[in-house]
Design brief:
Rossmann fold; 3 domains; six-stranded antiparallel β-sheet; 23% helix; SAM-dependent_MTases_sf
């Protein structure tokens, strides 16, 4: 297995996380039976070495179904990010899955449950032509951003990510792109919220915020139909602490930045603090901030402890619009939480 180091050309001196990625040239043997996996890359975050794996399964009619996932090899049963790939119509005995585009039409896992609430509760309009403003704290591989950016093309998206490596992998492997509608800050999301809450001049940061995920087939048609129309117009901001996730999201998961979606590689805590300080108001805020490594005895896996801090919670409250909604992704063995009033 040949090891190939990938670096982002023209980004010397930047903290884009591309130097943290090691890519493998392993190809898929398409003669497999049942299911098979190949390691295509690995990257380092501040607390773990993570793997990017392409999984191939044979369907009942002989078709190949491909999915790209990010895992911690110490806990391979937990997918930190995942996206489906679009298989070629014709292929040889071997297939370089790294070249395959990401299927932006669907997002799996718990992200499916994150999409509906802002639309159902009217924090966001359901018209496809809406020009919303979106903040994503915790980019990961960028699959949430990719879906919103591709289905709500007029959204103005800002992403905040604390880990430079996640920003890099989102771009390199998951198709994440920065453009006039999407940008990425590598910074602490809590600092961003703090800044947004304290600054009354919203024009400094001209966007509302929402991070969401959606898998249409998991929703009733009465909900999914207007949501599908609406998504294409969202204005999305993603925040991801790991540059590598930004890189793989772009390269392997189809994440793209443009005039309606942007990614920030920075700590989500810092980003939230700044947003709060700036006086920004968001229609919806999604906190999907989980560590990439877990320890035996941990009661709360998600969100990261810093997002349960009373100061940070205050920043979240301050940056929500009057009809806004806050959603946190949780993964816990604890039976109950005591949140400050």
């Amino acid at each position: 297995m040949q090891l190939v180091k990938e670096r982002d050309q023209g980004s010397a001196g930047t903290n884009d996380g591309s130097a943290l990625i090691e890519e493998y040239s392993t190809k898929l043997d398409t003669s497999f039976i049942g299911q098979t996996t190949i390691l295509i890359a690995r990257f380092n975050t501040s607390d773990a070495t993570l793997h990017i794996i392409d999984t191939a399964a044979r369907s009942w009619d002989g078709r190949i179904v491909l999915m790209r996932v990010v895992i911690n090899p110490a806990r391979p049963d937990l997918y930190l990010s995942q996206a489906f790939l679009i298989p070629p119509t014709d292929y040889n005995v071997t297939l370089d899955t790294r070249t395959l585009p990401v299927d932006h039409s669907m997002t799996g896992g718990y992200w499916a449950m994150l999409a509906a609430p802002p639309f159902v509760c009217a924090s966001l309009d359901t018209q496809r032509t809406v020009t919303g403003k979106v903040l994503v704290v915790g980019l990961g591989a960028g699959q949430l951003n990719n879906y919103l950016h591709n289905h709500f093309p007029r959204l103005n998206i800002t992403a905040v990510e604390i880990e430079p490596a996640f920003g890099a992998i989102a771009k390199k492997y998951f198709g994440f792109k920065e453009d006039s509608h999407q940008r990425l800050y590598i910074m602490d999301g809590i600092e961003f919220l703090t800044k947004a809450a304290s600054d009354a001049k919203i024009r400094i940061w001209p966007f509302y915020t929402v991070q969401m995920a959606f898998q249409g087939e998991n929703m009733m048609p009465s909900i999914s139909t207007p949501v599908r129309r609406r998504i294409a117009m969202l204005n999305i901001t993603a925040v991801e602490i790991e540059p590598a996730f930004g890189a793989i999201a772009k390269k392997y998961f189809g994440f793209k930045e443009d005039s309606h979606q942007r990614l920030y590689i920075m700590d989500g805590i810092e980003f939230l603090a700044k947003a709060a300080s700036d006086g920004r108001k968001y229609d919806a805020i999604y906190i999907d901030a989980c560590p990439s490594t877990y320890h035996d005895g941990d009661e709360v896996l998600c969100p990261a402890d810093a997002f349960l801090n009373i100061t940070t919670i205050g920043h979240m409250k301050k940056t929500l619009a009057k009809t806004g909604m806050l959603l946190l992704v949780t993964n816990s063995f604890r039976h109950s939480f005591n949140f400050p009033e």
